[in-house]
């Protein structure tokens, strides 16, 4: 073996892809904050932010600038290193998810075939779960390092919420995996794209509902947005944070939202599949481009639904949240899993 | 040295250093965080051995769930060096002796196992750790121990519920 | 108990049915309601571009009036200051010198006339107390300011423009023909 036998072109290719995906998701997240305010406004019969730039389009930059310019406060008694590490971890975990999402099929540039997916590992969906479970540390470390009892309690609340709903999420997913027989997101999407095969949501409506509710809880979205309950729960784990560190926490939530939308689209709604269109008839590059667009449209629709729910449903109380997670979601997911298994066996036996 | 070897030595050094830091850290929360670093290094080793499933399950179960529960307990108990009770000298001695016994046992086990010299780990080859093969092995060859383990977990769960119901 | 109106609704204390306990139908109903609001008309008035018409009895910022020849009407009698419940008005009187007849209508005039807009409660009692029709409350707000000092309005801020020398500004200050709620509703 030679020293560092690496396919350098592949490495550069992947690095460029990672950079594009990361910056694209950050850009989308930036405008998701704007969309959140606009959607809220429209649902409440008001115009929303419309002063910064045409239609208020520069609002996210104004918000970002405001966050950066604000005074950075690190509490005296806080654990400085961990205090800074917390938001960084939250952001990293949120962005790491994008590695296994198949953004589209392949493109051909300079007679190289480039997969529009950073890594097609055969445990793709488990990787997502692993990364999501790392996101809990961002919450816990941030809350603990603040050295504030309210932050700590909120961190424990947030972490136990994330862990509880991760279980139901995983169980609801198993039914999908039983259908597809693979953990690779790419394979799951390809199966849904195959002619004569409907999107997974048609086979797993209950599984999708459970997954969606759990995704709401994992992203700390309403009705599970306890960290944002400032008046009844004295705010969340980011109570002591200010300036861009707070911005990182809030921003990572939006990135999480995008990533979970992408995963839901890939698992249940055919990923980059365009409905009623056979992609194999198109030129490969065109099909890939349209695929990215299709996935983005699906993501945008999911994000809109997230926001729509936010401005409709009131927040759960903490015990209601736990009851829902453990006593309703998990049994429901188990039943869904059993029914799916039974139906698969019955179909095989026929 | 190939890339894999460099990664191997890096991960090994990280694992050993983190493990030492777990023991050395005064603050229990720091210990837990170093332990998570150890898990990450070990998961990296699994990936090098082409056992991706084991790697990620190690992360999900140990780093993602069990260590979070550890952190819960430690954060809630608010342990630090001031509140830690000073243990009696005999307790310390007993700890040293039992630890020593454990070390002896480990050494003898490793020595009795097949001779390690000249053997190399299968780097980036071998497919036992992939989810398909692992599933097959678990549900055919090792199905009895696997099911017994699940009974063990069930009994643990029942025990937890019984303790929780008491008050 | 006898209900006072027939608008009150009886509270249902029935235990919720299974379908209701799922909450999903209720959530979907709520989401339909919020979705329908996307297509409703926005009642927003985009303030600096659009302005809400004032009511004709609106009491805003004070104006010191002039007569048709452009002379200040105020004679510094101090009745407004006495009437003011918030004690926002202070003034200093001075005697009119010969040759100033085109500037002041009466023999005595206010050399200094100040209203503290932070104290003023815009009750309009000064307007009612004035025997010379010299002070009026206009249909404008007191604009924001950076200092507390900026809210003490002197004569230069309060006096209406001279109808002789600057007729356009005077006409604008009178606000004739501007929309009021009375003119829009009637």
Structure notes:
The complex is a heterotrimer of chains A (350), B (167) and C (186). With 350 residues, chain A is an all-alpha fold. Chain A has one domain (72-349). Chain A is built from 12 helices and 2 strands; from the N terminus they run H-H-H-E-E-H-H-H-H-H-H-H-H-H. In chain A, strands 1-2 form a two-stranded antiparallel ribbon. In chain A, helix 1 runs parallel beside helix 11, helix 3 packs antiparallel against helix 4 and helix 3 (80-96) runs parallel beside helix 10 (243-268). The termini of chain A are far apart. Chain B is mainly α and 167 residues long. Helices cover 76% and strands 0% of the residues of chain B. Chain B is built from 6 helices and no strands. Chain B is globular. The model of chain B has no long low-confidence stretch (mean pLDDT 83). Chain C is α+β, with helices and mostly antiparallel strands and 186 residues long. The chains are: A mainly alpha (350), B mainly alpha (167), C alpha+beta (186). The A-B interface holds A 1-6, 82, 121-123, 126-127, 129-130, 133-134, 136-137, 140-141, 144, 152, 155-156, 159-160, 163, 183 and B 1-3, 6, 29, 33, 36, 52-53, 56-57, 59-60, 63-65, 68, 71-72, 75-76, 130-131.
Largest interface, C-beta closer than 8 angstroms, per-chain residues? A-B, 28 and 23 residues
Strand content of chain A: under 5%
The dominant shape of chain B is: globular
Strand percentage of chain B lies at under 5%
Structural class of chain A: mainly alpha
Total helical segments of chain A: 12
The radius of gyration of chain B is 20 Å
Percent range of helical residues of chain B? over 70%
Give the topology string of chain A: H per helix, E per strand.
HHHEEHHHHHHHHH
**Residues in helix, % of chain A:** 55-70%
User: How would you state the average pLDDT of chain A, rounded?
Assistant: 85
- CATH C-level name of the largest domain in chain B: Mainly Alpha
How are the strands ordered across the major sheet of chain A? 1-2
In CATH terms, the superfamily of the largest domain in chain B is: NADH-ubiquinone/plastoquinone oxidoreductase chain 6, subunit NuoJ
Global outline of chain A: globular
Q: Give the N-terminus to C-terminus distance of chain A in angstroms.
A: 53 Å
Main sheet characteristics of chain A? 2 strands, antiparallel
Structural class of chain B: mainly alpha
Number of strands of chain B: 0
Tally of separate helices of chain B: 6
Count of domains of chain B: 2
């Amino acid at each position: 073996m030679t020293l560092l036998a690496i396919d350098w072109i592949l490495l550069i290719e992947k690095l460029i892809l990672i950079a594009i995906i990361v910056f694209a998701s950050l850009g989308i997240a930036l405008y998701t904050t704007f969309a959140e305010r606009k959607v809220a406004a429209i649902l409440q019969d008001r115009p929303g932010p419309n002063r910064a730039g045409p239609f208020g389009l520069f609002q996210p930059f104004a918000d970002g600038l405001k966050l950066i310019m604000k005074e950075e406060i690190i509490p005296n008694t806080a654990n400085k290193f961990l205090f800074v590490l917390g938001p960084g971890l939250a952001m990293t975990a949120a962005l790491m998810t994008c590695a296994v999402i198949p953004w589209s099929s392949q493109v051909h540039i300079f007679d190289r075939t480039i997969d529009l997916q950073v890594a097609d590992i055969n445990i793709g969906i488990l990787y997502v779960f692993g990364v999501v479970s790392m996101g809990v540390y961002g919450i816990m470390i941030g809350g603990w390092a603040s050295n504030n009892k309210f932050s700590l309690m909120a961190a424990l609340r947030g972490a136990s919420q994330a862990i509880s709903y991760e279980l139901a999420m995983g169980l609801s997913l198993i039914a999908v995996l039983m259908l597809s027989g693979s953990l690779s997101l790419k394979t799951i999407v390809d199966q849904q794209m195959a002619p004569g095969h409907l999107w997974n949501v048609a086979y797993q409506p209950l599984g999708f509902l459970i997954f969606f509710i759990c995704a709401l809880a994992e992203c700390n979205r309403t009705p599970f947005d306890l960290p944002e309950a400032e008046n009844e729960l004295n705010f969340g784990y980011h109570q002591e944070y200010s300036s861009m560190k707070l911005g990182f926490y809030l921003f990572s939530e939006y990135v999480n939202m995008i990533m979970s939308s992408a995963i839901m689209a890939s698992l249940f709604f055919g990923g980059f599949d365009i409905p009623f269109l056979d992609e194999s008839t198109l030129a490969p590059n065109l099909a890939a481009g349209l695929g990215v667009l299709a996935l983005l449209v699906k993501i945008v629709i999911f994000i809109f639904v997230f926001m729509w729910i936010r401005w409709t449903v009131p927040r759960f109380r903490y015990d209601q949240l736990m009851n829902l997670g453990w006593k309703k979601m998990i049994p429901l997911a188990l039943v869904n899993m059993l029914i799916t298994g039974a139906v698969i066996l019955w179909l095989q036996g026929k | 040295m190939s890339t894999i070897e460099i990664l191997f030595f890096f991960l090994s050094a990280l694992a050993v250093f983190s493990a030492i830091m777990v023991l050395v850290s005064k603050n229990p929360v720091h210990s837990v965080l170093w332990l998570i670093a150890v898990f990450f290094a070990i998961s990296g080793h699994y990936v090098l051995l082409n056992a991706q499933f084991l790697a990620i399950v190690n992360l999900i179960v140990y780093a993602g769930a069990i260590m979070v529960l550890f952190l819960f307990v430690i954060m809630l108990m608010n342990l630090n060096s001031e509140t830690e009770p000073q243990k009696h000298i005999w307790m310390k001695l007993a700890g040293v002796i039992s630890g020593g016994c454990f070390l002896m046992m480990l050494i003898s086990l490793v020595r009795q196992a097949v001779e390690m010299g000249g053997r190399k780990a299968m780097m980036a080859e071998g497919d036992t750790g992939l989810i398909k093969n692992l599933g097959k092995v678990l549900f055919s060859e090792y199905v009895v121990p696997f099911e017994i383990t699940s009974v063990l977990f069930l009994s643990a769960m029942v025990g937890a519920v019984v303790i929780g119901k008491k008050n | 108990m006898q209900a006072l109106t027939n608008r009150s609704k009886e509270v249902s204390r029935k235990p919720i049915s299974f379908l209701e306990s799922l909450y999903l139908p209720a959530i979907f109903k709520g989401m339909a309601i919020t979705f329908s609001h996307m297509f409703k008309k926005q009642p927003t008035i985009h303030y600096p571009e659009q302005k809400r018409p004032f009511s004709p009895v609106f009491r805003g910022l004070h104006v010191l009036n002039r007569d048709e020849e452009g002379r200040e009407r105020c004679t510094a009698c101090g009745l407004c200051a006495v009437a003011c419940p918030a004690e926002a008005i202070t003034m200093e009187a001075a005697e009119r010198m010969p040759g100033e007849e085109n500037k002041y209508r009466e023999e005595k005039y206010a050399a200094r006339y100040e209203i503290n807009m932070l104290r003023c409660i815009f009750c309009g009692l000064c307007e009612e107390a004035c025997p010379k029709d010299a002070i009026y409350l206009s249909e404008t707000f007191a604009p924001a300011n950076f200092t507390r000092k900026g809210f003490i309005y002197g004569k230069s801020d309060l006096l209406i423009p001279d109808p002789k020398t600057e007729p356009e500004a005077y006409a604008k200050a009178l606000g004739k023909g501007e929309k009021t709620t009375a003119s829009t509703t009637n």
